[in-house]
Amino acid sequence: MAIEYFEEFEIGAEYKTHARTITETDIVSFVNLFGFHEPLFIDMEFVKNNSIFGSRIAPGSFTFGLSEGMTIQSGLVKGGMALLGVEEMKIPAPLRCGDTVHIKVKVLAKRETSKPDRGIVTSEQQVINQKGEVLLQYTVNRMIRRRPKA
Question: Alpha-carbon distance 63 to 99, whole Å?
């Protein structure tokens, strides 16, 4: 599904990445690397007795990073030059240890810029688990390389 150039994106096109199961090691590594040392993420007794979730969940920033990484791995931003902005991010449900997720990407808009070597692509991204639940949704603007003139 590699898309290398701005011209290859079509408004309304939808893409789906491969799936990945999230492990406890994934979440714990992220939490420790980035310092999310809150009881909700590191104290399973707290989670069991006080959390509304009842099981280990990932921080929302983990879910966002996962979405971006899986999108890059899919080849959808092979021609990416820059992430310009993220809008309207919503986290309607938590990413849980053991969830198997994929990313759905829908192209919403694209526009040329004043520079001939790049364009802007706007897409909606959703992280979806094995039950079909949307865990994270956001709109992203990316600068994408244009096809070189012959």
Answer: 11
pLDDT tens for each residue of 24-55: 999 999 999 999 999 999 999 999 999 999 89
Residues 6+ apart with CB under 8 A from 114: none
d(CA 20, CA 103): 10
Question: What is the chain's length?
Answer: 150
Structure tokens at 93: 């449900």
Chain segment 64-88, per-residue pLDDT in tens: 999 999 999 998 888 778 999 999 9
User: pTM higher than 0.90 for the full model?
Assistant: yes
Can you say how many angstroms the Cα of residue 97 is from the centroid of all Cα atoms in its chain? Answer: 17
Let me know: does 101 contact 66? Beta carbons within 8 Å.
yes
Q: Tell me the domains of the chain and their CATH numbers.
A: 6-145 (3.10.129.10)
Q: Is 140 exposed, middle or buried (0-12, 13-18, 19+ CB in 10 A)?
A: buried
Of 87, 84, 41, 88, the closest CA to residue 62 belongs to: 41
